[in-house]
Design brief:
This protein has 175 residues and is an alpha+beta fold. The protein has 5 helices and 10 strands, in the order ααααβββββββαβββ.
Length: 175
């Protein structure tokens, strides 16, 4: 493997060691938790998808499952839907003026940007996703610093575009 690949793997492993020391899940753990939550939605709540309910309903069902697998007694790590705060102020991004940011789901420690593990945007189709992908990339930069972001598309079959804070974009079909 190239030295840049080795350096990247070392950086990811170092970040995962810090997460473990802080009592937080690794990237692979977060991946498995989200994957399991989405599979459970399709297994247990398929009628929600088939009846074309709003994305917020689907996100809340996934969020409940994520919270059950991520939140632990004594840990400050939380799963929150539609979270729009940085401390006590709204999350804002400068672009063409200030834009409020409210990811559909987040795994984070409330009140700080130090432990923003995951931000998820949920769509029911793959139409018009460029703005969502840009939003997710912005959420990985200062001041938010989410480690990973996911565009989750909940159609007939779920799929996602997982954007890691290290380089790479992965689309995985759930089968």
């Amino acid at each position: 493997m190239s030295s840049s690949g080795d350096a990247l793997r070392s950086t990811v492993e170092s970040r995962d060691r810090k997460r473990i020391q802080a009592g937080y899940p690794t990237h692979e753990d977060v991946y498995r938790h989200l994957y399991s939550a989405v599979l459970a939605l399709y297994r247990d709540d398929r009628e929600l998808i088939d009846s074309n309910v709003h994305e917020q309903t689907l996100g809340s069902r996934i969020g409940l499952r994520l919270a059950n697998s991520v939140e632990r007694p004594g840990s400050r790590l939380r799963v929150d839907p539609e979270y729009n705060r940085k401390g006590t102020r709204p999350k804002m991004i400068c672009g063409n003026g200030l834009v409020g940011e409210r990811p559909d789901l987040v795994i984070h420690v409330r009140g700080t940007n130090e432990s923003n593990l995951l931000a998820v945007e949920i769509k029911k189709s793959a139409k018009d996703i460029q703005d969502d992908l840009q939003k997710l990339r912005r959420l990985q930069s200062d001041p938010f610093n989410y480690h990973d972001t996911v565009l989750l598309i909940l159609g007939d079959a779920p799929r996602w575009q997982w954007i890691r804070s290290d380089p790479g974009l992965t689309e995985i079909l759930f089968e």
